[in-house]
Design a protein that fits this description.
Elements: E1 2-7, E2 10-17, E3 25-29, H1 36-44, E4 51-53, E5 55-56, E6 59-60, E7 71-74, H2 86-96, H3 101-114, H4 130-142, E8 148-152, H5 160-177, E9 180-185, H6 188-194, E10 197-202, E11 205-210, H7 212-217, H8 222-228
Parallel strand pairs: 3-9, 3-10, 7-8, 8-9
Antiparallel strand pairs: 1-2, 1-4, 5-6, 10-11
Helix pairs in contact: 2-3, 2-4
Bound molecules: adenosine-5'-diphosphate and magnesium ion.
Organism: Mesorhizobium retamae
Protein name: Sn-glycerol-3-phosphate ABC transporter ATP-binding protein UgpC
Domain ABC transporter: 1-228
């Protein structure tokens, strides 16, 4: 993708050019307000782009509505339907697409198993812990078997201990499914421990792109050095 975005006359994404390989786990990291969510929403089709181009595979998707893009997004506030069970929450998008009952079952069951939710399929969101809710939100994404997962600070509402455990779970999930993932966080430790590749953003531009150790050993500038935490 190579994109710009303004709200009114205010440029928020000032020209961001990122290539993501198939199967890669990429983390967009940067301080609050630097444009991470906006960029992710542009990928998802929830935000128009002011200039530039977004491609998924060979396909230019700029003009495609969110549901026409082969992506699934997981938000920080889970956005579960409170009146639906875990199974119904996970099945919802498939139902909308007109999937048969049998098809829904063959997708929901294994996803629930991967996420350790098999025993909780009949529960409602209010009967779940924060970590379990987060897993349901991931389950909703997994059942769609998308080409790309988008995560926007999925762990920021969890306590520190659970956050660390969920990082490992999300990584394991990625190793298992190998789905291309773009993951947003403002937490540099999360970025350093989870990413194949990190995109460091600052005020609507990309400061550096590289593997975690590369950024740590050879930060491109003082901002990256300060943010990633190496003493350059
Ligand atoms: P981040 O996710 O990195 O914290 P955002 O992408 O949410 O940053 O926001 C980037 C900038 O764009 C911020 O200055 C924010 O105030 C602004 N912004 C985000 N959404 C809107 C909007 N709908 N209208 C106007 N300004 C917005
Ligand atoms: Mg954000």
């Amino acid at each position: 993708m190579n994109v710009r975005k303004s709200f009114g006359t205010h440029p928020v994404i000032k020209g961001v050019d990122v290539e993501i390989a198939d199967g890669e786990f990429v983390i967009l990291v940067g301080p609050s307000g630097c444009g991470k969510s906006t960029l992710l929403r542009m990928l998802a089709g929830l935000e128009n782009i002011t200039a530039g181009e977004i491609r998924i595979g060979e396909k230019v998707v700029n003009q495609l509505a969110p549901k026409e893009r082969d992506i699934a997004m997981v938000f920080q506030n889970y956005a579960l339907y409170p009146h639906m069970t875990v199974a119904e929450n996970m099945a919802f998008s498939l139902k909308l697409k007109g999937a048969s009952k049998a098809e829904i079952e063959t997708r929901v069951k294994p996803a629930a198993e991967i996420l350790g939710l098999s025993a909780l399929l009949g529960r409602y969101p209010r009967q779940l812990s924060g970590g379990q809710r987060q897993r349901v939100a991931m389950g909703r994404a997994i059942v769609r078997d998308p080409q790309v997962f988008l995560f926007d600070e999925p762990l920021s509402n969890l306590d520190a201990k659970l956050r660390v455990a969920m990082r490992a779970e999300i990584k394991e999930l990625h190793q298992r499914l190998k789905t291309t993932t773009v993951y947003v966080t403002h937490d540099q430790i999360e970025a350093m421990t989870m990413a194949d590749k990190i995109v460091v953003m600052h005020d609507g531009v990309v400061e550096q792109i590289g593997a975690p150790l590369e950024l740590y050993d050879r930060p491109a500038n003082l901002f990256v050095a300060g943010f990633i935490g190496s003493p350059a």
